[in-house]
Amino acid sequence: MDIRHLQYFVEAARFQSFTKAAQSLYITQPTISKMIKNLEEELGVVLFERVGKKIVITDAGSILLEQAQQMVQSFGNMNSRLSELMELKVGHIRIGLPPMVGVTFFPRIIGKFREKYPKITMQLFEHGAKKVEADVGSGALDIGVILLPTNEDKFESFCFLRQDLMLVVPPSHKLASRSEVPLIELKEEPFLFFHEEFTLHDRIIAECEKLGFLPDVVFKSTQWDFISEMVAAKLGIALLPEAICRELDLERLRIIPLTSPSIPWHLAMIWRRDSYQSFATREWISFAREALQQTP
């Protein structure tokens, strides 16, 4: 027995005619007669009595009809829900964003996505890139934005931004008038850092260690705007991404390119390789990829 048997049976009971039921279903009358006969043989009961050109449902048929109508309706509801899902009318996406990335790049994109797919819900989690990457890997998040490089065996990704870190100092700082500053010249400076959960924390320390010094970290924060305010208050220097530096008050701060080496800030969206992605998640990946490529 499959759902077609029940659909044909329900239509035959509704029209009390195999011919009319066949016309309603756009099949031939012998086809529906054969289906009903197969159903009767499988169940071991008579479902219809033939009275002239009409058919009359039996007591056994009435019992089956009550259940069959519910099953056919449930099957139709299931197909409708699946169609809505496949047509991206409904769904849920869990996205991890580092705080400075989310505020800079994603409000506009998320807004446009919600306009196009208002019934797809989005749950945003603000964490440093380390935790975002770990949570995507564990399945706690569907999508994440991280700082490259990442584990290409574990994640699929696309890079949407390639920038470098910039030196941020107050206008009165001795380096404020320089056109560029080598990293080694900062070895005696007090640093304002992102918290340990941020990939930049480890990356800056690693680059300093390559030059033979450990940065003197006087304060750590998870908020780039707080770090910039601390710089403006002359409490230390900071290394911030170019995109963040565009948001800073240039009357209170100076932005200087960092050299020897430059420290890359390459952002990518990641998702687990070789794992099922919902229709909504796949559409978000496609939508975000196109939107981010158009971001200046």
From TrEMBL:
Lineage top rank: taxon: Bacteria
Keyword Transport annotated? no
**Pfam families xrefs:** HTH_1, LysR_substrate
Task: List the CDD domains hit by this protein, alphabetically.
Answer: PBP2_CidR
Q: Which PROSITE patterns match?
A: HTH_LYSR
Specify the species.
Paenibacillus glycanilyticus
Coding gene?
A: ywbI
The family note in this entry says: Belongs to the LysR transcriptional regulatory family.
Note the PANTHER family from the entry: HTH-TYPE TRANSCRIPTIONAL REGULATOR YBHD (PTHR30419), NITROGEN ASSIMILATION TRANSCRIPTIONAL ACTIVATOR-RELATED (PTHR30419:SF8)
Question: What are the alphabetically sorted keywords of the record?
Answer: DNA-binding, Transcription, Transcription regulation
Q: What is this protein called?
A: HTH-type transcriptional regulator YwbI
